[in-house]
Amino acid sequence: MQRQPLFYDITLRDANQSLKKPWDLREKEIIFNYLAELGVQAVEVGFPAASEMDFAACSRLAEIAPKDTIISGLARAVEHDIVKVVQALEAASKPRIHTFITMSPFNMKYVLNKRPQEVRKLAIEAVTFAKSLICEKGEIEFSVEHFGDCIENLDWVIDSLKEVVKAGATTINLPNTVERYRIKTYVDMVEKVYNALPKDIAISVHCHNDLGMATAATVESYFAGAIQLECALNGLGERAGNTNMYEVAIALHNSGVNTGLNLDKIYETALVVSEMSGVPIYEKAPLIGPDALAHRSGIHQDGAVKTKNMEKGAYRAIHPSLIGRSNDEKLGFTSQSGKTAVFEIISNAGYPISMQEAVRITPLVKEKAQTVGELSDKQLIDIYIQEVFEPKGPFLLKMFEKITDEQFHLVFLHNDKKYDLIGKGNGPLAACLNALDEAGFQQKLLHYEQQAIDEDILGSEAIAMSIIHLEGKNGETIVARAKDTSTMKANVNAIFNGLNIINS
Predict the structure, then answer these.
(1) Residues spanned by CATH 3.30.160.270 within the chain?
(2) How far apart are the C-alpha atoms of 267 and 245, rounded to whole Å?
């Protein structure tokens, strides 16, 4: 049985500090409440020593935090910062001091300008001091900043962490502070630390997305032993951002892991965070992007349509409802699309269409798309109306009027030659077909039906639609439609539309 991961949110600290306009207290409260609705188990509310505003925000969020939520504050490995965290989180039921120092050879030498033994001493002293202040009420997290760069001194780092654990740290965080290498290199390092430390110590990962692999690194680290996953809403964070919480949660969910999160709150939260941060959700963003449920390839569209009402889709990772998103899989028509997209887009817009009609007009809309790119639904529908209800061809109906119940006056053009006939028959359809037969245009009617149509769909004047099936030149069935306020005119127009389709 898989262990339940502990999602540790860093949106209010790591992500917030990266914004062009960081949030004020009111805005932080809004985000914090969304985190509570998501069911996030731990929240890093800020860096209390950074400013009075940050201190006040941390204090306020500690006051309103749910009793079972871990509330954490960040502190450098110095006493002043640690004291500020303790003071800011006084009201929290489950406070945590999160202190850190770099242990990578490069940063110890060029950023801290300290020798390794000095860094180890500072780390141990910071954790010891933090433990003396927070006692049994809270807990200590220690982060090895730039852990991903500790490849050559990993054994020394592990020895240092053993001392840090003895000093009182119960969570060891292993950040990929700057993503530089392949995922397996980092995950193997995480696993080595996990195997070296006591099993009651929680291993945490905190990955940045410099190479676009933060989600994968976090997910694979969980399976290598990490239990705490530090993530940000919408993947916000310095440079290319932090690990995206939604992606990690869904990847684990799809792998059979109980995340403990309210996944159906994801989509709403993502939209709010985007609006409040001023960082748009890019079009192709996984799960939450406008195009995340779009299909343009004909093959993909066919599979998507055939599985659209199923829990598992042919071309989607989840059912949209899992993250609180409406089932808005959409088909976009481009030159790469096919008949399925034509049929679905038009029928979903409320217009009557058969698959045969979709097949017939697909070459026309593909030709248009080759010129202009992706067609809007309106552009597609305009072509559909023209080709289905106003098809061009050699026949042009000029007049059809009732003389008696069994006699009708028919006037039409064929290749500009005028025909003026009296058709006889039991009703307008039979009379029209008999007149055409006399003129040398014999047609076989296979099926006829009449439908009322929505005035809003095909115009306020169109209240009747005739659908006829004629036999084509090769014995195939041709479907033709027409609309009019008059049922009689709709019937005859449908016949002439069918003639133009057959002879086009």
Answers:
(1) 395-502
(2) 12
Tens digit of each residue's pLDDT (9 = 90 or more) over 412-424: 999 999 999 999 9
Nearest-angstrom CA–CA distance, 353 and 450:
14
Tokens at 176, concatenated:
């990929």
For residue 165, what are the contacts with CB-CB under 8 A and spacing of at least 6?
A: 172, 197, 198, 201
> Rounded to an integer, what distance in angstroms lies between the CA atom of residue 56 and that of residue 388?
67
Q: How far apart are CA 92 and CA 136, in angstroms?
A: 13
Residue 368 CB burial class (10 angstroms; 0-12, 13-18, ≥19): middle
Determine the Cα–Cα distance for residues 449 and 419; give it in Å rounded to an integer: 27
311-345 pLDDT, tens per residue? 899 999 999 999 999 877 888 899 999 999 899 89
Q: Is 207 helix (H, G, I), strand (E, B) or coil?
A: strand
Q: Can you tell me the distance from the alpha carbon of 112 to that of 205, in angstroms, rounded to the nearest whole number?
A: 23
**Strand extents, DSSP E, 200-267:** 202-207, 228-231
The CA-CA-CA angle for residues 287, 290, 293, to 5°, reads 60
pLDDT at 473 over 70: yes
User: From CA 99, how far away is CA 130, in angstroms rounded?
Assistant: 9
In this predicted structure, the answer to whether residue 407 has a pLDDT above a threshold of 90 is: yes
Question: Domain 6-261 carries which CATH code?
Answer: 3.20.20.70
DSSP class of residue 4 equals P
Residue 62 has what pLDDT?
97
Q: Which distant-in-sequence residues (6+ apart) come within 8 Å of 171 by Cβ? A: 96, 139, 140, 141, 142, 201, 202, 203, 204, 228
Q: Which of 87, 93, 19 is nearest to 58 (CA)?
A: 87
Amino acid at position 87, single letter: Q
Sort 163 into a burial class: Cβ within 10 Å, 0-12 / 13-18 / 19+: middle
CA pair distance 188, 176, nearest whole angstrom: 12
- Which stretches does DSSP call E strand in 189-248? 202-207, 228-231
Give the phi and the psi of residue 383 in degrees, each rounded to 5.
Answer: -65, -40
β-strand pairing of 417-424 with 445-452? unpaired
Where does the chain hold its CATH 3.20.20.70 domain(s)? 6-261
Q: How sure is the predictor about 99, in pLDDT bands with cuts at 50, 70 and 90?
A: very high
Residue 501 confidence (pLDDT) above 70: yes
Q: Per-residue pLDDT for 457 more than 80?
A: no
Q: What's the pLDDT score for residue 51?
A: 93
Q: Which candidate, 118, 227, 215, 209, places its Cα nearest to that of 171?
A: 227
Contact at 8 Å (CB) between 259 and 231? no
Q: Provide the whole-model pTM.
A: 0.85
Query: Side chain identity at 101, as an amino acid letter?
Result: I
Given a cut of 80, whether residue 79 has pLDDT beyond it is yes
CATH of domain 395-502: 3.30.160.270
